[in-house]
Every structure is written in structure tokens, then in C-alpha cells.
Amino acid sequence: MAYHRDMPGDWVNITTDTPVGGVIVTPSRLRPLRLRVPGKLAWLAVTPFAAWAVARIGGLERGSFPAQIMTATPYAAAGSLLPLLLSLLSRKKAVTAVALATSAALGVSVLPRAFGDAPVAQAASGVPFKVMTANLFFGHGDAATVVDLVRRNRPDVLNTQELTPGAVADLDAAGLKELMPYRLLQDEWSAAGSGIYSSHPITPLNGLFQVIGHNMPAARLSLPGGAQLEIVDVHTLPPLGRQVTEWTEGLRALPSGPSSGPFRILAGDFNASLDHAEMRRVVARGYRDAGDTTGNGLTPTWPANKRLPAMITIDHVLADQRISVLGYHVYDVPGTDHRAVLTELSLPAQR
Predict the structure, then answer these.
(1) Do 143 and 120 contact (CB within 8 A), yes or no?
(2) Distance of CA 275 to CAs 56, 168, 194, 255, 279, Å?
(3) How many other C-beta atoms are found inside a 10 Å radius of the C-beta of residue 232?
(4) What global pTM score does this model have?
(5) d(C-alpha 267, C-alpha 341), whole Å
(6) Which end of the chain is more exposed for a tag (fewer CB within 10 A), N or C?
(7) How far apart are CA 206 and CA 276, in angstroms?
(8) What are 208-228's pLDDT values in tens digits?
(9) What are the domain boundaries of the chain?
């Protein structure tokens, strides 16, 4: 026996030879948590995404609002995974099948832009050519940054949108006149102004297509070695309100990609993404989208320099099918809500 003092003045008798006892308890097997989602909730979650997939695959966006939200298809594709999870938890075959088809359809629409096409073997033997495009947001884009990009990357052509007379003066003061002495300018004190700058001689190309929207100058370039190239500075109207009709007509009016004769490039602010049926139809008329071809088709270009990051891709460079696309780069330009796009191309050598 032993004694232990519990409280001052009190002694407690503790028996040390008492055997330790107890009951051995075997835990029962835990049942797995069986979370089940009501079928109605699963249908409620899947239905809007399924409708989105049908509209995207069928090119059914009609009117201003559907045209605007269609640019968010990459985010809808990612979001469709949540309804898919809910449908699986509902254990309802019908809604699960619809959810699977929806995610697959949206994924097929979006994911190829992240992988690009296989490189063309003969591209290395062609004539290198670089195109840069920049929307200057009513002329507020920082001229020094634009000229620095030109100086560092040496593009053969710079297409500008929302080019104002003030922006023309600022760009020349920053050194663009020495870098790109040839130009075809249609500048205005509004969003309609546009201009093509070039390091090669250019001549205006009138009557190539009906311009519907902002100013869209077109020019023919004479390149070293005798090659001829046509370039269009694209700036269609945005699909806002009643302008959606002119937006549609403006995209349809753009010239098709030729299979012979001078090469052709369309570059600028299309106010459309590859999730718009009208934009896909433009590409299908003899072009390849530089971002899509290089696996950068999901790199957003608008709205830049905002509290939220750029979210959608509406600035493009389209090269006719004879031209190989080697590189694609996007740059921030202070003062404008668009990111500048630079593409590296290769023209087939003339024989």
C-alpha cells in the first residue's frame, strides 16, 4: 500500500497491487458515407450548361446578349464539371448521360486551342515575317511601350486600332517614324481610327472588301525577293445592342484567304472569339488563326489593365493557309484595355 496526500491535511489510501482491468472493445466497421443528390437538383444544374453546349456546337447564338456571353465558353467548359459531379452523385442515368455529353462537347470546343497544330516542316525554309497588332483605346495606349515592342521584336507590320491623330504624333515622337517609315493611316478622334505601319513599302489596296464597322485600311506590301502580301487592319464593331447586326455583316464582309497570288493576312480587333460561329466561318474561308495554331488560342487579350485580369480573346492574326505560323506572343500596353499581339510567320519561298 501507499499513501498519497490529496489535499493539505488529507491522506488517501491507494492500493498499488490492484490489477488493471477493462473491456476490450472492437470497433465496428464504418459504413461509407453515401451522399446522394436529388435528381431534380442535378437536372437544374445541368440544363443551362447543356443549352450552352447546344448553342456553341450549333452556332446558334442570336442577338446581342448571346453573342456577348458566348465568349465565356472556356469558363463554361470548366464550370460544367460541377453539374457532372452532381449528376454522378444523383445516381440517375439520364442526367448523368446529359452531363457527360455536355462536358465533352464544351471540352472539344475549347481544348484544341490549348494544344495547337503540329509544326510544318518546310516552315524553316520560308521567308520570315512578323505581324503585330494593338488596339490603342481611343489613342490612350502608351506610345513608348508600343515603340519599344516594335524596337525589340522588329515586326514587319504594325496594325493599330482606335488610332487618333494625337496617338500618331506620340508614336512618331517615340521613334516609330524611323523604325516604320511606311504607313497607311485613317486616324480619327474616335474609336474608328486605324492605321497600318510597315518597314516595307506599301500601297493602298482599295476595293478589296466592303468595310462595315470602323476604318479598316488594307495595303499591299512589296517584300524583299519579290513576294507580294496583302494585309487588312481589322476592327469590326462590338456586338452591343443593335450593332450586333453590323458586327455580323462586318465579319462576313472580310475577304477570304486566297489560294494563289499575293499572300493575305487579317490582323486586329475582331470583337469576336473562336467561340462565335461568325468568327469560325471567317477562319474557315481560307485562314488559320495564329493563336489557335500555336496552342495559345485561350490566351486572353481583353480587358487588359483592369482590376480583373484579361478574360477573353478577341484580338487575332489570321494568315492564309499557305503561311506557316511559328510563334505567338501577347504583351500588356499601359493605357489601353487590349493586349498587343505579335505573331511570327513564315511565307513560302518564291520560285
Answers:
(1) no
(2) 7, 33, 25, 20, 8
(3) 24
(4) 0.88
(5) 9
(6) C
(7) 28
(8) 999 999 999 999 999 988 889
(9) 39-113, 121-347
